[in-house]
Amino acid sequence: MKKYLRLIIYIVIFVVIMALSLFAYEYLGNDYIDEDIKDAGENNNKEQIVNENKAIDFDMENSNREKIKLSDYFGKPIVVNFWATWCGPCQAELPHFEEAYKQYSDDVEFLMVDLTDGYSETVENTMKYVNDNNYTFPLYFDTEYSAANAYGLYSIPQTLFIDKDGNIVKKQIGMISENVLKAEIEKLLE
After folding, report:
1. The pTM is what?
2. Residue 148's closest CA among 127, 119, 117?
3. CA dihedral 90, 91, 93, 97 (to 10 degrees)
4. With contact defined as beta carbons under 8 Å apart, do 55 and 151 qualify?
5. 98-147 pLDDT per residue, tens
6. Beta strands per DSSP E along 25-177
7. What's the number of CA atoms in the CB half-sphere (13 Å) around residue 158?
8. CA trace torsion 159, 131, 64, 138 (10° rounding)
């Protein structure tokens, strides 16, 4: 009988702790809601607020070694992919970007930004890799860590979906599937 009484007491204590935790989460959680979200009104959701986040500009080089900026492409939806040839997940998703580029390049800018350190990742070996795999998407190089620093890149691949006004609509960390890539591009075009 003592065993059952002890078990019941433990269950009651557990239920009380869970109820208090739920109450604390609900009560304290409201104090930490972003003021922008509160002010946005009930018809605006968090995704729409993210759309107001301006993309951070950065410098890069194109395949002709000319310096350009991300902002040079504002005015049209942009898909930016940060990658490197040594990255297995990057290699796995590149065919998806190639197909998307072939399908959407008239309406969307594709910026395939290679994180080029000059040692393990060089412009030459990246261009060879792209040519060997018959990729036709536009290739760009972050030779001065401008993009890496601007976006605090600590892992790749990463993909940014930027609307025509230069606002980040979505940031995908990690490998992206072909279906998700195309769905996000379709959202950009709406």
Report:
1. 0.71
2. 117
3. 100
4. no
5. 999 999 999 999 999 999 988 889 999 999 999 999 999 999 999 999 99
6. 59-62, 67-69, 78-83, 109-114, 139-141, 158-162, 168-173
7. 16
8. -30
